[in-house]
Amino acid sequence: MKSWKKAGLTALAGSLVAFSAQAEWSATGSASMTYVTKGGTTGDTTVTGNPFGMNRDITVAGSGELDNGWVVSASHALTNGTGSNSSLSVNFGAAGTLKYNQVDGALGIGKIDNVMPTAYEEASDGATTGALSQVSNGANGFDYTISIEGVEIGVGYAPRGGVGSTTEGGGYSGATGGAAEKSIYVQGSPMEGLTVGAGFGEGKNSTTITQTDDEQTMFVTYAYGPVTVGYQQSEIDIYSSTNDIDVTYYGIAYAVNDDLSVSYNKIIEDTAGQAYDTEYSGISVGYSMGGMAIKAYMNEESGYGSATQEVETTEISLSFAF
């Protein structure tokens, strides 16, 4: 082996040893319980089991600082005892943060798919008749963010549409991947209380996976005293189809006091070719008292190609922090 290779390997090994020695790993979870009911023209038949449930997520995370000052972080999440997401990130300080995300999570434009203020969940949470179409950059891939003079810039890239290895050392099965997904977004606060942002990207087409759909979104939120309002508009131009999608978001949240917040959200999904728009609306409330938090929402979904179809979802969550 050439001497320069030996030197390089020695330096890398030294850095990894230093990282391992300084890294601190911890396991976190939550003590929370939820109650969910559904109703409406179709919702009353979608859930017939026990309405009570518990959160069984555990996340193991660690971080350490290298000799050059970079901070390396890693996390592995388990949902109901099964791996749901892993990530590895390197914080370069003023030069930004590069992260690789695997299995679940948001990359690039997906991080601003819905930024409306809410006291609990989004208005589309609990919908069962159809999934809301939102801008996305996949889940398996790279995400880079940097802040310059108060402006955040984010770039997402999912190779082969996110299809690839999920384990170390030859775990890639050789499955045919789709087109690469890529996007960029910018957001910042030009004045106190005001936040604006926009994102553009290409997401993998759900039918012809070797092609992409053009995506874009723009939003504005404004906070004045206890009130925060928001508006967002997203467009998805479907590859080789006239059924393009426009999604409009509205949100308003009011902080009654330090412990109690309420909000109202509405989403309108307009798909070309559909006779009716799909509308999602919901009221959320959140209350905290010390280490205990009670949150709830009442969401309603209507439309989805029918003038009479309707689903109503109610969720109540009780959680404890200790």
Question: Can you offer a commentary on this structure?
Answer:
The longest helix has 20 residues, at 3-22. It contains one helix and 18 strands. The N and C termini lie far apart (53 Å). It is mainly beta and 322 residues long. A hairpin with a 2-residue loop joins strand 16 (278-289) and strand 17. Residues 1-21 have low confidence and may be disordered. Helix content is 6%, strand content 53%. It has one domain: Porin (Beta Barrel). It has an 18-stranded antiparallel beta sheet, with helices on one face.
In short:
Helix content is 6%, strand content 53%. It has one helix at 3-22; strands at residues 24-29, 31-40, 52-54, 57-65, 71-79, 82-91, 97-102, 141-148, 151-158, 181-191, 194-204, 212-224, 227-237, 245-255, 260-271, 278-289, 292-302, 310-320.
Structural class: mainly beta
> What letter string, H or E per element, gives the SSE order?
HEEEEEEEEEEEEEEEEEE
Task: Kindly estimate the percentage of residues that lie in beta strands according to DSSP.
Answer: over 45%
Q: What is the straight-line distance between the termini?
A: 53 Å
Give the helix tally: 1
Low-confidence stretches: 1-21
Sheet bearing the most strands, described? 18 strands, antiparallel
Per CATH, what is the topology? Porin
Q: How many domains is the backbone divided into? A: 1
The oligomeric state of the chains shown is single chain
Give the overall pLDDT as a whole number: 85
The total beta strand count reads 18
Please name the CATH architecture. Beta Barrel
